[in-house]
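Data card: per-record layout.
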Amino acid sequence: MQGLRYLLAAVVALPLATVAWLWFTMLSPFTYDRPDHLPEVGEGPHAVFVYGTLRLSPVRWIVMGRAGESEPAELHDFRREKLDLIEAPGERVAGEVIVVSADELERLDRYERLGIRYARVAKRLADGRTAWVYRRLADEDVGVEALLEAGGADT
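The structure for this 155-residue chain is written out next.
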């Protein structure tokens, strides 16, 4: 009987712990303070090229509050290397483009830890559109110039 209680407690506690962890790491105001030197997010809509976990609808739903529509896209002259995109002439990265509001872009910035782990830069996609792309910051790159390149990625 005691074993059944422990099993029942685990069945209830595990999903609750998972939800708490997802909220704390992705949405909580306690795990990310937007660096002061970052410019404010402009009014949307914003096109964002996603190539990793944000390609998954459930992840976008958790992060942004909606999965949103996505469409296939490619970024030329880059290759994916672990959590980053590396310049690589002649290569390409398959991904998706999502269109988000200013509020949703701020939520994506929080998820990617803009200014701490990633920079958000405007890049021209294979189809000619410009979209925001998150690129991993190297430790030595955490400076204002590396955080955001000039230009935007409005649709």
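Known properties of this structure: Residues 2-26 form the longest helix (25 residues). Confidence is low (pLDDT under 50) at residues 140-152.

See the next section for split statistics.
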